[in-house]
Specification:
The chain is an alpha+beta fold and about 325 residues long. The protein has helices at about 5-20, 35-45, 60-70, 75-85, 95, 100-115, 130-140, 200-220, 265-275, 305-315, and strands at about 50-55, 125, 145-150, 155-165, 180-185, 190-195, 240, 250-260, 280-285, 290-300, 300, 325-330. The longest helix is centred in the middle third of the chain and has 21 residues, at about 200-220.
Length: about 325
């Protein structure tokens, strides 16, 4: 099956049915189309403890963001172009909301950590609020905006999908259009990158037929279910998910501020009161209405602290509506 929503929402019931019947299940096509990422996690990387997975796993969202940057299109213009080319559904909600990627992220996390994760446990933000201005500022700062699935191991597992700034020189930043890519880091193999077509008739068919052939080979040899479908024989490992409020990462912020003395000190003072340090600031020229965009990049900070700081900053009479927050990933090994 290629039905990622079914697997990410009813996988436990499916696994129980497989145990009772002795049947097998192939679902390579459910994540990243023709890229054999699930087989890699299930077999090729079985000797590894997975440290993290980053994935560009929705071609529609990636195409829209690519066009917003390359052609300087608005979100709505880029989405209309994707629909005209057949890269987006008439109702693109699942793609642009991030839910399609969340279903796939839940499956990847299940394969990596031996505990069944539901899509509802994945933190999700879509790309519908991404502004072309922020894409241009990101490039000026040396980053590119991608809808990224982020999965990190540890005492508590992080599973999240949201617009993310990644360094321009990272391989994932070079994934354009409708292509998909998955970056995996294991304790033995180190970093590994899987790239290819994430959707379409032939890539999906390639994955489905590969599953059929695998199952047929096992049947011919009389060794059904040679490899557990979800990598592990049981999906009952005690693995907790880190609450989003406790996630620590870097942040990009854009404020619309009145062009008055002391505005920057007010913003930085509120951030400092919550132990959020600023790495860099960009302040562009004045707009007609007397406001200026103020762009800040922070060092690592906790999500809860950042959210509380932004809530306080937005209440200042010198700050207009529409504050933008985008998370940044450029940690060790990149």
């Amino acid at each position: 099956t290629a039905n990622k929503a079914l697997l990410a929402e009813a996988g436990e019931e499916i696994l129980q049915a497989l145990e009772e019947t002795g049947l097998d299940l192939g679902f390579e096509a459910s994540v990243a189309g023709g890229i054999p990422i699930l087989k890699a996690l299930r077999e090729g990387l079985v000797a590894n403890t997975i440290a993290r997975i980053y994935g560009i796993i929705n071609g529609t969202a990636n195409y829209v963001l690519t066009m917003m940057e390359k052609e300087c299109l608005s979100f709505q213009e880029a989405l209309a172009d994707a629909q005209a080319r057949g890269y987006a559904e008439a109702d693109p909600t699942l793609d642009i909301s991030g839910m399609d990627a969340a279903h796939k992220a839940a499956i990847l996390a299940t394969m990596a950590f031996g505990r069944y994760f539901k899509a509802q446990e994945v933190y999700v933000e879509g790309i519908d609020r991404v502004d072309s201005k922020d894409i241009l500022y990101a490039r000026e700062l040396g980053y590119r905006v991608k809808l990224l699935a982020i999965i990190k191991g540890g005492k508590q597992v992080e599973i999240r999908v949201h617009p993310t700034m990644i360094p321009l020189d990272h391989s994932l930043a070079k994934v354009e259009g409708v292509f998909n890519a998955v970056y995996v880091e294991g304790d033995g193999v180190g970093p590994a990158m899987f790239y290819g077509r994430g959707a379409g008739e032939m890539p999906t068919a390639s994955a489905v037929v590969a599953d059929v052939v695998d199952i047929a080979r096992d049947l011919l040899k009389g060794v059904g279910r040679r490899v557990p479908p979800f990598s592990y024989d049981r999906l009952d490992r005690k693995v907790e998910i880190k609450p989003m409020d406790e996630v620590v990462t870097r942040y990009y912020m854009r404020f619309t501020a009145q062009d008055r003395p002391g505005v920057l000190s007010k913003i930085s003072g509120i951030l400092a009161s919550r132990q959020i340090s600023i790495e860099s600031v960009i302040q562009k020229g004045r707009r007609e209405e007397g406001t200026v965009p103020v762009v800040m990049m922070t060092h690592e900070a906790m999500e809860r602290d950042v959210r509380e700081a932004l809530e306080e900053i937005d209440q200042l009479d010198v700050i207009g509506k529409g504050t933008v927050l985008i998370r940044v990933e450029d940690g060790g090994g990149w």
